[in-house]
Write a structure and sequence with these properties.
This protein is mainly alpha-helical and 253 residues long. It is built from 14 helices and three strands. A hairpin with a 2-residue loop joins strand 1 and strand 2. The N and C termini lie far apart (46 Å).
């Protein structure tokens, strides 16, 4: 089958809603992996279709709504969580971190420090998804932030434990956040991180400043992760917008 005939069939499948581009791209990648395993040479059609499917899958992802918790939803969420889980969810949101990385915070590592003109709580990240690649890092919260008081109390109560948050907190947050599900958008724990980063963007943080929190290696990767920002940019007609245009779309939302 030639490339154009195959592509026409692929278009028909997606237009009829029988298969998403991302699903088709996954199946195609599996097929190519099987051919490689069997030492079968790739056909020109294979290569061209791979490029087309990857492109369409990326476009599809950019236009697919990704849930992001808003400050208003955060206030509702913490009302339905135990106190410790509420502290964990709040910290995830205000620092724009992965919930799994927050779960790996070492109890003894938290420390009140004096920075130039500001008293802060230093929060070192010694374990987590990006640590093997980038090394440990440290974020700071102003000592006046209400969550700092809660973190110090938690640190004292968990002094005999390696990790600051009990293991069951993640499961509690993951199940409770589902109260925000709609027919078209599903919420999971990533909505905390995404919502926190979007809120920082609305507050005026630059892409470089956002990446201090998100730990993404590039602006483009940060914007792909935000997703909601890309959707807003598309709705504003910025289909080929620059990173700055996309971040402006987030701020205007």
């Amino acid at each position: 089958m030639d490339t154009e005939t195959f592509w026409a069939k692929a278009m028909a499948l997606t237009e009829s809603k029988m298969m998403r581009w991302s699903t088709m791209a996954t199946y195609w990648a599996a097929m190519r992996a099987g051919k490689k395993y069997l030492d079968l040479p790739p056909a020109q059609t294979d290569i061209l279709m791979t490029r087309r499917l990857e492109h369409k899958a990326q476009e599809e992802a950019a236009l697919t709504p990704r849930a992001a918790i808003t400050p208003e939803q955060m206030r509702l969420l913490i009302q339905h969580l135990s106190h410790t889980a509420a502290v964990m969810a709040t910290l995830t949101f205000i620092l724009g971190q992965r919930l799994g990385d927050i779960a790996k915070l070492h109890t003894e590592a938290l420390q009140l420090v004096q920075l130039p003109g500001q008293h802060t709580l230093a929060i070192p990240f010694l374990e987590g998804k990006v640590i093997p690649k980038t090394g440990s890092y440290c974020l700071h919260l102003a000592a006046s932030n209400p969550v700092v008081h809660d973190l110090i109390k938690l640190q004292q109560s968990m002094s005999e434990h390696k990790y600051l948050f009990p293991e069951d907190c993640q499961d509690e947050i993951a199940s409770t956040i589902q109260v925000f599900h709609t027919d078209t958008v599903k919420y999971d724990v990533r909505a905390l991180r995404r919502g926190g980063l979007q809120e920082m963007a609305r507050m005026g943080l630059s892409l470089d400043e956002l990446r201090v929190f998100s730990r993404h290696p590039s602006d483009s990767m940060l914007l792909r992760y935000l997703q909601g920002g890309i959707c807003l940019a598309h709705q504003a007609g910025l289909t080929t917008g620059t990173a700055d245009a996309m971040i402006d779309a987030i701020r205007r939302h």
